[in-house]
Amino acid sequence: MSRTAHRLIGPEEPLWAPHHPEADPVSLHTLGFWLYMMSDALIFAALFAAYAVLDHPYNAAGGPQISDVVHPVAAFIQTVIIFTSVFAYSLAMVGLKAGNRAFVIGGLVAAVLLGAAFLGLELRDFAVLIAEGATPDRSGLLSVFFVLVATHGIHMVFGILWMLVMIVQVAMKGFTTAVVTRLLNLRIFWMFQASIWVCVFVFVYLNGAYR
Amino acid sequence: MSLHRADPLDHPDVRNASGIAFVAGYAASVGLMAIALMVTLRHEMSYVRFVIAVAILGGLALLAQAVLMFRLDLSGGQRWKTISLLLVVPLFVLSIGLTGWMFHTLYPRTMLDFMQVQGSGM
User: Fold this and answer.
1) Residues of chain B positioned with their CB less than 8 A from the CB of A42
2) Which of B1, B2, B3, B11 to mutate to test the interface with A (most CBs of A within 10 A)?
3) Which of A160, B5, B15, B100 is close enough to A52 for a disulfide, judged by CB 3.0 to 4.6 Å?
């Protein structure tokens, strides 16, 4: 749909003008999704709390310590990749502001590819650990390590799937109110993954490697 | 249904996208995490100083992301997102900190061989 089709029709003020008497559907949806992400943050808080409890040599049960399973330099590469993926999505939002459909799709594709690269590195790390016998059932410490990192990874998977859907919707429907609202919510979701990864990187990888 | 129709691309949440802010947020996030990595690899601080240093660096990276990437501020469109985040952060920190503290004081009183492995722990 072209931009001109959405231009102001009828009443003098756009629906999202400040102090407009009617509810702004875009802001309502983004605020609602933002509050959902705040509750999602508390799921991670529970996992970080479990990690704080189990991150002790006692809970390694004679198996590998956390310093044996984390590699801060490799995790930093993952950090740069996820930050770059979020940056690519951010550039797509600059393209959205300009109404440039190709720019938005390009940014989403770049964000998907970088997100997939992040997940590939994470899966490779998991495969190496499991091959060395450091499986989730080896100890409480390894259980919480795998659950915490994999929960973030599952969020990444859903973010990538959502982006693939949005690429199709932007290409087929253009910038309708519903599509723009979904892009704004996905922006919140994807940027949130980078913020959670900062906590994982510092709390698990750097803290674990310093022992 | 509203009679008002407006271009969704004119919405404040779309208009607040800024290439300069995104570049600054990206650079700040990568730079701060690179410094945290260097601090870790050098291994020159006591453990307590290290924890404080990386916590500050991580906090600054999260702040940079909130302001420059999420574009949170006190404007009409972002005010309640900012407030809800400010209210969630203490819950996030307290739920982790209090749980960790509770169990680390519980361990010495309940696990007989705890003292044997405590030396290599936190």
Assistant:
1) 88, 91-92, 95
2) B11
3) B100
User: Could you tell me the residue ranges of all domains in chain A?
Assistant: 29-53+73-209
* Helix, strand or coil, per DSSP, at residue B76: coil
Rounded average pLDDT over A161-173: 98
3-state secondary structure of A9: strand
- Whether the complex's predicted ipTM surpasses the cut of 0.90: no
Q: A29-53+73-209: which CATH number, 1.20.120.80, 3.40.190.10, 1.10.357.10, 1.10.3720.10?
A: 1.20.120.80
**For residue A27, which amino acid is it?**
S
Q: Where are the domains of chain B?
A: 7-71, 74-122
Instruction: Pick out chain B residues at pLDDT < 50.
Output: 1-3, 120-122
Interface A-B: count of C-beta contacts within 8 A = 199
Mean pLDDT across chain B, nearest whole number? 89
Encode pLDDT of A113-139 as tens digits. Answer: 999 999 999 999 999 999 999 999 999
